[in-house]
Amino acid sequence: MYKEIKESEINLQITNELKKVLESNGAIVYQTRIGDYDLSKINTKNHKRNDLETRAQLINESDCDIYISIHLNSDPSPTWSGTQIFYTTKNEENKKLAQIVQTKIRENLKTKREIKPLKNMYLFDRIKKPGVLIEAGFISNSNDRYLLKQQSYQKKLAQTITDAIIQYYN
Questions:
Q1: Would you give the DSSP letter of residue 110?
Q2: Do residues 94 and 131 touch, judged by C-beta distance below 8 A?
Q3: How far is CA 153 from the centre of its chain?
Q4: How far apart are alpha carbons 77 and 140 in whole angstroms?
Q5: Rounded CA gap, 12 and 115, in Å?
Q6: What is the pTM of this model?
Q7: Rounded Cα distance, 134 and 113, in Å
């Protein structure tokens, strides 16, 4: 939790808004979680790793065509801001999707950030489907933090991601 904002709550709000917008455009949406809980089946020191394994397994075994993972960024310096898209090099489609999403984000949300490859990320190294990680903004930046809490901004972000996904498929 960063001051007055809890990442998991904002992530769920954005994800639920994205689900609504995608479904209104005819998509079938699968979510790995619909509440503020993890998916671990064990209660040991490997609890977090098991949660990530379960998420990867759910995505890989689903009928989904792509995955979108929503998170919030943070940095000790409050000057960093903006939405950023990450991808793994495991699948060529990941970079293509990341470029389209980042371009739409730049156009609609005025961020100047560039896409970046993920390296050695436990969850994303295990997912076989194409997809991206979206860091929706920096909770350590007061302006981003303010925007991320606004339903209107969450709707705009969800619509922007949806537009990018539609473009990806066209």
A1: -
A2: yes
A3: 15
A4: 7
A5: 23
A6: 0.89
A7: 12
